[in-house]
Amino acid sequence: MRVSSPPSAILSSPLSSLQSMGSERVEMRKRQMQVHQEAAASVLQAHHKMGNTPTNASNACCFCWCCCCSCSCLTVRSDDETIQRSTFEHRPEGNAHCEESPKPTLEDARSWVVSFEKVMKSAAGRSCFRQFLRTEFSEENMMFWLACEELKKETNKTVVEEKVRQIYEDFISILSPKEVSLDSRVREVINRNMLEPTSRTFDDAQQQIYTLMQRDSYPRFINSSAYTDLLKSLEEPPPEP
């Protein structure tokens, strides 16, 4: 005869799983902090040997904020800074749907087959391509590229540092669900650049993601039914009033 488990036993299993997942996340963050702090120490030591110690080198904490974003120095933020952050955060371009983005002309849409550069220079092209990337679960590549473009336009040092930190959290951190795929060399460059963030901090990473989209996703986009259907819709004569 089978004996049913009491309700408390049934509930305890998923609760234990959640607690286990939470513990694993905490351990992962701890390991990440340790790795980045060790990397920071080695980079700072190298700067020191070259006689080029950054102004913030006296506080090792100033590096870990950019890498793991969980340092205690981040927990104390003024209300003004919190308000500023909501203003600085990158807002996605349009809503990434061909149907709802600025409608391209037939000439514009046809030009996209010429080169990837034509797509990226067109607002409608970027929007349609981004929608295609969403179907391939790689929309974060376009989001990262756009965020870097916005960063390049910024000149205020405080705003630049905040945007750099936000981009790192959103697209570079291994804990982010929107992490982009970068090789170890580029990640090392980013870690060095993060010692003194500028509007060009992610230049190497942005170029690598651009090349990835150009070589991998762009050919499929041009051969996709989405692009073919768009051309057909633009070629059709407008309905008579």
Brief synopsis:
This protein has 241 residues and is mainly alpha-helical. Helix content is 65%, strand content 0%.
Q: Structural class from helices and strands?
A: mainly alpha
What is the helical fraction, as a range of percent?
55-70%
Radius of gyration: 23 Å
Order of helices and strands: HHHHHHHHHHH
Shape designation:
elongated
**Residue fraction in strands:** under 5%
- How would a crystallographer describe the biggest sheet? none
Averaged pLDDT: 74
Name the poorly predicted regions.
7-19, 39-44, 46-97
End-to-end C-alpha gap? 76 Å
Number of strands: 0
Q: What does the model show?
A:
InterPro entries: RGS, RGS_sf, RGS_subdomain_2. This is Regulator of G protein signaling 20. Pfam families: RGS. Residues 115-231 form the RGS domain. The protein is mainly alpha-helical and 241 residues long. 65% of the residues lie in helices and 0% in strands. The protein has 11 helices and no strands. It has helices at 7-49, 61-67, 79-88, 106-111, 116-121, 123-135, 139-153, 157-172, 184-193, 203-222, 225-235. Helix 6 (123-135) packs antiparallel against helix 7 (139-153), helix 7 packs antiparallel against helix 8 and helix 7 crosses helix 10. The longest helix is centred in the first third of the chain and has 43 residues, at 7-49. The termini are far apart.
What would the keywords be for this entry?
241 residues; elongated; mainly alpha
SSE blueprint and pairings:
Elements: H1 7-49, H2 61-67, H3 79-88, H4 106-111, H5 116-121, H6 123-135, H7 139-153, H8 157-172, H9 184-193, H10 203-222, H11 225-235
